[in-house]
Structure formats: structure tokens, C-alpha cells
Amino acid sequence: MSEERKAPAVRSGRLEGRAGKAAERAFTALDQRLPAAEGGTLLRKVFPDHWSFLLGEIALYSFVVLLLTGVYLTFFFDPSMNESVYRGAYAPLHGVLATQAYSSTLRISFEVRGGLLIRQMHHWAALVFVAAVGAHMLRIFFTGAFRRPREGNWLIGVTLFQLAMLEGFCGYSLPDDLLSGTGLRTAATIIGSIPVVGTYLNFFAFGGAYPGHDFIPRLYVVHILLVPGALVGLITAHLILVVYLKHTHWGGPGRTNSNVVGAPMVPQFTAKTTGFFFMIFGLLAALGALAQVNPIWRYGPYRADQVSTDAQPDWYVGFLEGALRLMGPWETNVWGHTFMWNVLVPAVLLPAVLFVVLYLYPFFERWVTGDQAEHHLCDRPRNRPTRTAFGVAAITFYAVLLLAGGNDVIAYSLRVSVNSLTWLFRGAVFIAPPLAFAVTKRICLGLQAHDRDLLSEGEETGRVSQEVYGRIDEGRRPLPERRRYTLLLRDVPLPLQPAEDEPRPVPRRRRLRLVLSSWYYRDRVELPVGAAPPRPEVTAPPREPLTEREEGGSAGQ
Ligand code: HEM
Ligand code: HEM
């Protein structure tokens, strides 16, 4: 048997003699049936350590909690739209006509043992899940972890993000209370706004005129089978790619673009991440036990002729609600077909454009930079001012829409006119993102200038002294070597330049690329002269295999 295919404990010399032979035999038997030797290599895979890498894990573990609590809910939830008079444990609603979906959710809340806890855990886990997915996506964006070779994983990620929002929307629409019914009414209007086919799609989805009797059972299948199935499949592919492509890490001495340094999967990483799972589980259980969420008995069952004020969707759908509230009442009638711009633009076209932009961003940036190299080091956001500014502008745009989605609540709480507030948000949606872009870019360049200052002048000691001649010395000392190295490890491409032999006049597409490239990369603060950046370690040619190194250990694989 080759050295590689021996049991790890035998290989490392920790097991000798009879015990060693027995271990070797057992391992060989296992390896003939399962890829045990390959699995052993996998167990030593290293995983870099940084708090920002925990965001993906929070998403993963809250998804696991959703699966566990969701299965429990399916034992008791009845997705039927048949109506009957409510006679359950919640006396204030006695005598009210409600669907089985609504009554069974009340039963889960008041009669099933542990039902309210599990229901609230499920809802809190959904809120945390989508938030973690969003935050994880931002970390990938701001650190440039979407660049070659991880573009495929970015595409899977953007799909996961949409599925997460869809799953959440389907989930909170299931109990058929007044709030969720109002959300479904909005969904029906959005489907109906699609030109030409909208009405037919609506009839198809709802099995007749809205609300019909079919929609909640259909939504149920989507919520507990289709979307979770797609999520499980894509998350598995996502994680396989994370393992296969290896994880990015933050640069520093010994941490380069051609290696990955971190704790081995077994035992360090597994121990840490299992503990982290239990922390998340505990936190969600505490939230479920202590913080009320979605008290559907206060809203009452859905009735198509009623709508409550301050009806707010879950936070992740709030931006669509905001976009709908900001849009003016525009419609056009063409050959008997009505184009409802007031719904079509904010609720169909806007999200479509946003997600296409998200899908394409890595390819756009690669085109602008002409950068074909593989990148395994995380970017410091300040070193990519234009990308960072883009990200912050997008977050600002999203935040304005989210706030606009709660314009009635804000107006009521602050005692201001809801119309004035709507106009304020209409202005802000156009003005705030470019403003955020400009401010962020300035801040990034300011931080770069600060880095340059640190490199050339050293860091402040905090001790100001005065010489006998009167000169005041603010007290600086050279940066520690590790910090200096990290600041110098900067990987920022130069703007593309027209080649000497390029045909003139330069074709329009090429000109656009040159202009964009210059706009992206011309603003930068150069590092001090003489401080040679560790360039060779920054960019590796494509398809160089990465070496793995255990923290404080030697290089392997
Ligand atoms: C259900 C949702 C998701 C789950 C459970 C998930 C899980 C994870 C985990 C556990 C990691 C490794 C740890 C880390 O870097 O945080 C990871 C890495 C990654 N994720 Fe996700 N993710 C999800 C959604 C997304 C989204 C929305 C995007 C981007 C649009 C994305 C893009 C990536 C990329 C590119 C990596 C590799 C990062 C690197 O090597 O530095 N993921 N994901
Ligand atoms: C990403 C995954 C999921 C998300 C984001 C999600 C979200 C939600 C939300 C927000 C609700 C409304 C809870 C409430 O009543 O306050 C809900 C209800 C429900 N979910 Fe999920 N869910 C997910 C996965 C699952 C899975 C995998 C199952 C079952 C296998 C499931 C089963 C249910 C059931 C039966 C209900 C209705 C009961 C009720 O509303 O109390 N969910 N879901």
C-alpha cells in the first residue's frame, strides 16, 4: 500500500505494532469500499480564520434551523383554503370565519406543545437567514472574492439570494392572515401588471379570480418542496465549490496569492464551527422564546375587502414595497391593453435590472480591468474606491426604498405628512446614491492617504515631546513589520491604455472600455517611493494550484 493510502495515524507514526497493523487493515478494508483515503485529505483541508468568513456560516446554520423547525410545522399546518367558523383555544376570535390555513396556524400557536416556540423560531430564523445571506454577499463584493476563479460561485450565490427571498415570501404568506393576504394581493397585482399575459398568468397561478381556493395549497408545495429542494441542491454545489476552489484569505506575511493558510478541517475547524452552530441555534431559540414575531391572532383572518394600516412585509421584501409606494400613478392604454407603469416599473423591471446587474458585475469588472489573473487574496475595500463606492451607493438606494416601504409608520410615528415624506423619498432615491458614491470614494482615498502616511512617517506613539530648542515632536515610530507588509500588499490594476499599434480612430466599444477603466482606476494614492510592494506574491497566473498551509505549520498538498 502506498504511503498516501495508509491510515493517517499509521502514516504519521502515531500507531505502531499490532494496533498499527489492525488500523491499517481496517483502513484498507474501508478504502476498498469508500474513498476513505481521499476523505482523509479532505479532513486536512485548511480553512482561513476571519470574522467576516462567519457570515456564510450564519446563513448555513440558520438554514439548517429553518429545515428542522419547518419539518415540525408541517406536522400540524393544514394548507387548505376551506373556511369554517373558528372554535379553537383563542377565545377573542371565536365565531370568526377563517380558512384551515389560518385556524391551523392558530392551533400551532396556542394548542400544539412547543408550537409557538417552533413557529417563532422558524420566523426569526427566516429573518436572520436572509439578513446573513445579504451580509455575506456584501462581504464577497467588497473583498473582491467574486473574481476569477470564483465567478461561478457568485452566480450560484445570486440565485440563492433570490430563492431565499422567494422562500421567505411564500412562508409568511401561508398562514392566510390579514397581513399575508395583503401581501398576496400585492403579488397578484404585480403578476397582473405584466403586459399582455398578466391576466392569464394571474388566473393560472390563483386557479381563477383572486384569491380563489387553490393558491395556499400551491404555495405550500412551493414552500416545503420546490424552493427548499433548489436551495439544498445549490447550497451543496456552492460549498463543494468553496472546498474545491479553496477559500480566499487576508494577505499578510506568509499569506500570499498562491497559498491558503488556516486551521485544518479536523479537528480545529470542525470543533469551532460546531460550537458556532449551537450558538446560532441557541440565539434563535432565545429569540423564538422571548421576542414575539408575526402575531397573526392580532391581525385576524384574511378578507379581500379589508386591509390594516401599518401593514409591513418582512424586511427583505420591504424594498419592493417602498418602490411601489414611490412610483407615480402612471398608466398607458395601447390597443385595449393597459400598461400599469406604476406597478410594472418598480415591482417587475426594477428587480429584474437589479439582479441582472448583480449577475454580471464580476464579468463587467473583469472586462473593465482586462484582469485575467486568479485572485485568492481579499481586497481591502479602501484600495478599490470605485467598487466600494458602487457598493455603498447600492446599499443607500436599497435603504431609501426600504424606508419608503414604511412611510406610513414613519409618518405616523413622527407626526409628519405621509405625502411630504413620499416626496422626500422620491428625491432621496435619485440624490442619495450618487452622494453616497462620492463621499465613499473620498473616504477610501482619505484612508489610502492615511496608509501612505503610516508607511512613510510611521505610527503615532501618542507621546508629544518638546526639544530644548522649542521644536515639538509628535512622536512617531516605524510600523511593525507585519502591519507594514499588509499595507504594502496592494493589488490595484492601472487603467487600461490604448496600445501603440491600435487602429485609429479607436473603435467605439474599445473607447468605452478605456474610459470606464480610467474612471475605475485613475483615482489612487500612490505608495511612498522606495516602499517596494511585495508584487510577485500578489497576482498569480491563472490555474496555478494553490498550496495549503496549516496555521503555524508547514506547506502541504
Ligand atoms: C443560502 C445562501 C448561502 C449560503 C448558505 C452560503 C454559504 C457559504 C459559506 C459557508 C461559505 C464559506 C465561508 C464564507 O466565506 O463566508 C461561502 C463562500 C462563498 N459564497 Fe456563499 N453562501 C450563500 C449565499 C451566497 C451569495 C448570495 C453569494 C454572492 C452573491 C455567495 C458567494 C460566495 C462566494 C464567492 C464564496 C467564496 C468566498 C471565498 O472563497 O472567499 N454566497 N458561502
Ligand atoms: C429558507 C428556508 C425557509 C424560509 C425562509 C421560511 C420562511 C417561513 C416563514 C417566514 C413562515 C411564516 C411563519 C409564521 O407563521 O410566522 C413560514 C411558515 C412555514 N414554513 Fe417555512 N421557511 C423555510 C423553509 C421551510 C421548510 C424547509 C419547511 C418544511 C419542510 C417549512 C415549513 C413551513 C410551514 C409548514 C409553515 C406554515 C406554518 C406557520 O406559518 O406557522 N419552511 N416559513
From TrEMBL:
The entry's keywords: Membrane, Transmembrane, Transmembrane helix
EC number of the protein: 7.1.1.8
Keyword Chaperone attributed: no
Biased composition (Basic and acidic residues): 545-557
Pfam families linked: Cytochrom_B_N_2 (PF13631)
Top-level taxon of the source organism: Bacteria
Region spans: Disordered: 529-557
The keyword Transmembrane is annotated on this UniProt entry: yes
Transmembrane segments: 58-77, 123-142, 154-174, 186-208, 220-245, 275-293, 339-361, 390-414, 420-439
InterPro entries hit by this protein: Cyt_b/b6_N (IPR005797), Cytb/b6-like_sf (IPR027387), Di-haem_cyt_TM (IPR016174)
Chain ranges of the Cytochrome b/b6 N-terminal region profile domain: 26-251
Cofactor: heme
Catalytic activity: a quinol + 2 Fe(III)-[cytochrome c](out) = a quinone + 2 Fe(II)-[cytochrome c](out) + 2 H(+)(out)
Protein name as it appears in the record: Cytochrome bc1 complex cytochrome b subunit
Organism, as annotated: Streptomyces humicola
